[in-house]
Amino acid sequence: MAMPTAARTGFCLTMLCMAAVLAGGAAHSMTSSRGDNEDRVLSVTAAQQLFSDAPDGVDHMVTGPVSSAFRERQREAGCADAVWPNVPLACFPG
């Protein structure tokens, strides 16, 4: 037996509201309170944003052939001493 259209629409709206509440709760739990009691979103580095599918990090030392200009940019950015997640984007090719 098929559900009437009004019931399906109400169900969809209910699910949408539940998703919004869950997203709001997740956003609230990602904040922290620091000395001044002001909520702040926890910081995410540019490298973590760029490689969000690699939570354990990405090796930023390129082992393949690259230009000497790229190697120079890596030296200037301090890539040899960088530690995940604080890796400058200049360390990655592209």
Features:
2 strands, 94 residues, 43% helix, mainly alpha
Give the CA-CA distance, first to last residue: 55 Å
Order of helices and strands, N to C? Answer: HEEHH
**Major β-sheet annotation:** 2 strands, antiparallel
> What's the Cα radius of gyration?
22 Å
Strand content: 5-15%
Unreliable residue stretches: 36-40
Number of beta strands = 2
Please tell me what the overall shape is. elongated
Mean pLDDT: 74
Lateral arrangement of strands in the main beta sheet:
1-2
Give me the number of helical elements: 3
Helix content, binned percent:
40-55%
Q: Given the helix and strand composition, which structural class is it?
A: mainly alpha
Signal peptide: 1-19
Keywords: Signal
How would you describe the overall organization of this protein?
With 94 residues, the chain is mainly alpha-helical. The protein has a domain at 44-94. It is 43% helix and 9% strand. The protein has 3 helices and 2 strands, in the order H-E-E-H-H. The chain has helices at 5-29, 46-50, 68-77; strands at residues 31-34, 38-41. A two-stranded antiparallel ribbon has the order 1-2. A hairpin with a 3-residue loop joins strand 1 (31-34) and strand 2 (38-41). It starts with a helix and ends in a 17-residue tail after the last helix. The relative contact order is 0.11. Residues 36-40 have low confidence and may be disordered.
